[in-house]
Write a structure and sequence with these properties.
The protein has 262 residues and is of the alpha/beta class. The radius of gyration is 19 Å and the shape is globular. The strands form two sheets. A four-stranded mixed β-sheet has the order 1-2-6-5. The protein is built from twelve helices and six strands. It has helices at 2-16, 21-29, 39-55, 68-81, 137-144, 146-149, 153-163, 181-200, 215-228, 230-236, 238-248, 252-261; strands at residues 57-60, 95-99, 108-110, 116-118, 125-127, 133-136. Bound molecules: zinc ion. Zinc ion (ZN) is lined by residues 156, 160, 217, 220.
Length: 262
């Protein structure tokens, strides 16, 4: 009964909140990395985006007005991560807040000595456990084109959200049955140590050196690479790539390799 009811409510949402074709096409055109996705994938992505937009509010702040196109652009990138997962991965928060530029977060934290700190450096994006995802629109725009920017802010912040499903972000999201946390951790640690050593040695890395910041940032940055330039991640860190394939239930490098052969 419950299943029938949820299927019915899903169908109702899909028709009630459908995205007009022209708007969908315009949004897809602004995200060149979606070239990896076939028509079937894109159709399923579109459904997920409709359900996502029905569940979350994407709201402007500090004078930023979110246009319908911006809503869809943000939602598509958020949904790429959960294309093969349940949208419930994003339960526990309701809002995505979009600022007109970088912002200084208002939260404070206490260190082990009891000293209270305040972050003074402006951020392009932020995700907090149980809180909204916050994005700077110019940085969303810049990150939409991976080829020119080598970063994707929306995928980055939503990867943090997935990582935070079991508390603080630490590079290891709760894994499904059948995946071993030990194997995940071993693959992640080996790659992270290697990457940090390369960055420390001053090597120019194809992956954003910001990934060396912490295991949580490593997971978020490598998730960007996984979806936007999967062949790079598979080449650099194949064991991590394999774990990401099992976790996200997608193999974007196989899609990319298929396209390269065509
Ligand atoms: Zn981050």
């Amino acid at each position: 009964m419950f299943d029938a009811l949820s299927r019915w409510s899903r169908r109702r949402t899909l028709s009630r909140a459908a995205i007009p074709d022209a708007l969908w096409r315009e949004a897809v055109a602004q995200l060149p990395f979606l070239a990896l996705y076939g028509d079937d994938d894109l159709a399923r992505l579109r459904e997920k985006v409709v359900l996502f937009l029905d569940a979350k509010a994407i709201v402007g702040a500090r004078g930023h007005m979110v246009t319908p196109l911006q809503r869809v652009i943000v939602a598509i990138q958020a949904c790429v991560l959960v294309l093969e997962l349940d949208l419930a991965f994003y339960d526990g928060f309701e809002n995505v807040i979009v600022y007109p530029g970088e912002f200084v977060p208002e939260w404070e934290w206490e260190d082990e000595a009891g000293v209270v700190h305040r972050n003074e450096a402006p951020l392009a994006g932020e995700a907090m456990p149980g809180g909204p995802v916050v994005l700077s629109w110019p940085d969303v725009e810049a990150g939409a084109d991976w080829e020119s920017s080598g970063m994707n802010l929306v995928i980055h912040e939503f990867a943090h959200k997935i990582d935070m499903r079991d508390g603080e972000a630490n590079g290891c999201p709760p894994l499904p049955a059948g995946m071993s946390p030990e194997i995940w951790q071993r693959a992640l640690n080996a790659a992270y140590d290697d990457f940090c050593a390369r960055v420390d040695a001053g090597e120019h890395t194809a992956i954003d050196p910001y990934a060396a910041e912490s295991p949580a940032e490593f997971f978020a940055v490598l998730s960007e690479v996984f979806f936007a330039e999967p062949l790079l991640l598979r080449r650099e860190y194949p064991r991590v790539y394999g774990q990401w394939v099992a976790f996200y239930r997608q193999d974007p490098a196989a899609r990319a390799a298929g396209l390269a052969r065509e």
